[in-house]
TrEMBL record:
This is Site-specific recombinase XerD. SUPFAM superfamilies: DNA breaking-rejoining enzymes. The keyword DNA-binding applies. Keywords: DNA recombination, DNA-binding. It comes from Marinifilum flexuosum.
Amino acid sequence: MSASYKFVYNRKGKLNSENKALVQLRVYMNRKQKFFTTGEYLRESQWDDEKKKIVNHPNAIKKNKKLRDMISSLEDYEIRIMDEGKKFTFEHVEQFLSGDSDIGFIEWCRKNLEEKQSLKGSTYRAITGKLNVIERTGILTSFKDLTFENILKLDNILLQDKAPRTVFKYHSVLKTFVSTAIKMDLLAVQNNPYIKFQPKRVPDAKRRYLDETEVRKLQEKDFSTKRLREIRDVFLFSVYSGLSYADICDMKKSDLYIDHEGNKWIWRDRVKTDFEYKVPLLPQAAEIIERYADDGCLLPVKSNQKMNEYLKEIATICEIDKNLTFHMARHTFATTITLSNDVPISTVSRMMGHSSLRTTQIYAKIVDTKMLEDMNNLREKMKKSNK
């Protein structure tokens, strides 16, 4: 490192009309120093000069992180410039802090993503995939490219071969990174392209599920091949437990336990959200686990692609006129298995590992809609029988 960084409070020894002074970043290199604003104005009691950090402030944690990120980002940028064989100067610092540096936006997004250690593998891969697609368009190469016109251009390109709902998810990812860049002073607030561009929100897709008759067809069908029997069993385990494909793949014997009354439970954290959930196993789910107890693994799980491929074959054999996919099992647990049988929505939410009750309420609305349809059908039958 050719530069050293340190925060300085009230360098000029003067307070403003609000009895506050500016915190500045002192950059020292080649026996010279320059001061750059952090944008933070504080009272004397809110600055610890020995530890160079903000104290006694309601947003101290957030603001201190902003200051740390400021230096961390600058150090990374300095390394990048030097790796390119260039001499790092005060002009580079000024350009970087003003958002005019030539640092790659997607490159920065990837680095920022890597630092989020709380992200689960599936989420990390999904975001990385979206960044790769955006990079291939060649539209957002640097922070300077974050304009309304370019975001609109990106939106039009993505819509050429992607569904509006998918494109909305791309914008959600970008908006998160843009917001982080603003907090780290890498992008001026007024340069946020999403102030003008508002992605079109697409209504939630209708969650498809199996009704009681369709579940019974799956359960009672005697498949001649081991391959289809195993896929059916894993699918039904999800139907009766509510576990997602990722959670079943990640499930270990240590996640199973028996309470003092002999009830079997699954107790673990969801792969997707890291949110804890506990599920008392229904007899059907417990029986499936027992069926494969001697096989060395909890359940014979195949790749998600293969699972969905074989499920379509199973649907045809069982005469289920639906595009059967593995995630329908989880939807079926929420609707047909639990909510339709008067299990309280709060209990269902806890068993499914939802981080918000609002997610579970979507299933409750589906059950209400189905109930209304059934009653309307009943009314029509009664009208015909009375004629």
